[in-house]
Write a structure and sequence with these properties.
The protein has 137 residues and is mostly helical. The protein has a domain at 49-117. The protein is built from 3 helices and no strands. Helix 2 (45-66) packs antiparallel against helix 3. The longest helix has 52 residues, at 72-123.
Length: 137
């Protein structure tokens, strides 16, 4: 591969356009692969979900045991609010994890559609215009 100083730019506009387009596609493919690697499901994510629920349960049991039982109304009031807080915190974290999983699936679908459209475009299909992809995958 020649460095830019050693390889003069082509004088033909069509060749220059093709080379610039190829360079942009290579850069886009690199960015797509980096983000795909970031979004891939890791082996420890399922374990983190289980640990999150266990720690929330342990936290609630700890507060249950540490609250003074002398005034039962105050005890149940504080424990109910603490349980609501803990469950909502765990619920929000689980919701965020579900959203990340949905984004991963959406990325997979979108990348398949883009690859399909690129294949159709390379084949020179006349119906490869915008909005002509009727596949639902």
């Amino acid at each position: 591969m020649l460095l830019p100083e050693e390889d003069p730019l082509p004088r033909d506009a069509r060749t220059l356009l093709r080379e610039v387009d190829a360079a942009i596609q290579v850069k886009d493919i690199g960015r797509i692969h980096r983000w795909r690697n970031v979004l891939e499901r890791k082996w420890y994510e399922s374990g983190l979900t289980v640990i999150l629920f266990i720690s929330g349960l342990g936290f609630m049991i700890t507060v249950y045991k540490l609250l003074p039982a002398g005034n039962t109304l105050l005890f149940w009031f504080i424990f109910a609010w603490f349980a609501l807080f803990t469950l909502s915190l765990i619920g929000v974290i689980e919701l965020l994890l579900a959203k990340v999983h949905a984004l991963r699936e959406l990325y997979q679908i979108q990348s398949q559609r883009v690859e399909h459209l690129e294949r159709r475009l390379l084949k020179g299909s006349p119906e490869a215009g915008p909005g002509s992809d009727r596949e639902t995958g």
